Amino acid sequence: MSKSKVFIICGEASGDLHAANLIHEWSEINPNIEFVGWGGERLMKEQFSLLKHVKSLSFMGFWEVLMNIRSILKNFKTCKKQILEHTPDILLLVDFPGFNLRMAKWASKQGLKVVYYISPQVWAWKKGRIKAIKAYVNAMYCVLPFEKEFFKQNGIDVHYFGHPLLDEIQRFKTANLSTLRFNKPVLALLPGSRVQEINRKLPVMLEAANRFSDFEIVIACSPYVALEVYERIAKGKAQLVVNQTYEVLNVANAAFVTSGTATLETALFKVPQVVCYKSSAFSYSIAKRIIKVNYISLVNLILNRKVVEELIQDDCNPQQLIESMNAIINDERVRNEIIYAYESLIIQLGEIGTSQKIATSINETFILNKG
After folding, report:
1. Domains in the chain, please, with CATH?
2. pLDDT tens sequence across 24-47
């Protein structure tokens, strides 16, 4: 019996994490599948043949995309060539919508089955992408609870089985392998996984954090970014911990967190946080005009109310970070309200077992019933 083949395209660290957990479960359900494609460190630990690493793919902001357009166009050409060479049964797209929706259109025209995992945030901006999803995506798997109803209202039937981070964090806590120990309470800094955002936000975070002398300042460093980037900014004023974000959050008392998946991870560890966002002036001016949401952090978006402070662009400055963190550290009522809201958030995210449920669904729909 010949093996089925799945080609995966991830473009960021969070997608790499979720894709790795998905194929781990999928391989248990059906060991007769070959996984190949674009990913990162987590996928490389699974039964996965890496063709391109995510560290060369992720560009943040409109200006940064324009500056790297030649590399991006080359990536499209390379990816199409690799897909044709490997003739997969399924093209599995994970987040990374600017690239992946274009690949969905091309792949659909090649007659490939296209499955999208972690849907594009069309509820926030670029609603025109809904037409592309309808036309070119055979199945969509969402990870945010409000997305199913949103897509239903727009004529698309999507799947929602919960958020895979629940499984990931439960595995970490069950293994209980954290070895980090500090003599002071910990103020964690999570500046992101892209060099551009680290360069913009980490100096601001660090300047604010160093005002809290009673705390150990710990930076959660991405394995996708050279350690020298962090060392150049930190200048010995913080502890650098590489590729151990969950270990850092497990001991943290509070955190400055870049907007994105990290805000949700921080909430699931029940760490009070201040959310930071800062991009180039050009990118922000465009984003402000086209993004139509009330909040930028996943915590506030899911709960549909302001639970954690969001400091955006010019407001993301040391003084306002200090004031927001002071409220968390010195006001027990503020801390308790945040943690209580996190409990509600966890309930809304659903039950554990998301990766296994999604793997089962894709396998039954596109592998067992293919042809």
Report:
1. 4-162+353-367 (3.40.50.2000), 170-349 (3.40.50.2000)
2. 999 999 999 999 999 999 999 999
- Tens digits of residue pLDDT in 53-74: 987 665 555 545 555 667 778 9
E-strand stretches of the chain? 4-10, 33-39, 48-53, 90-94, 113-117, 139-142, 159-160, 186-190, 216-221, 239-242, 252-258, 273-277, 309-312
Within 31-141, where are the H helices?
41-44, 62-67, 69-86, 97-109, 129-136
Helix 195-209 × helix 318-330 angle, to 10°:
60
Give the separation between CA 325 and CA 363, rounded to whole angstroms.
46
- Could you tell me the pTM of the whole model? 0.89
How high does pLDDT run on average in the chain?
Answer: 91
Query: For residue 12, what pLDDT band results from cuts at 50, 70 and 90?
Result: confident
CB of 49 closer than 8 Å to CB of 23: no
Helices vs. strands in the chain: H and E counts, helices first: 17, 13
SS3 of the chain: helix, strand, coil, percent, to 5: 50, 20, 30
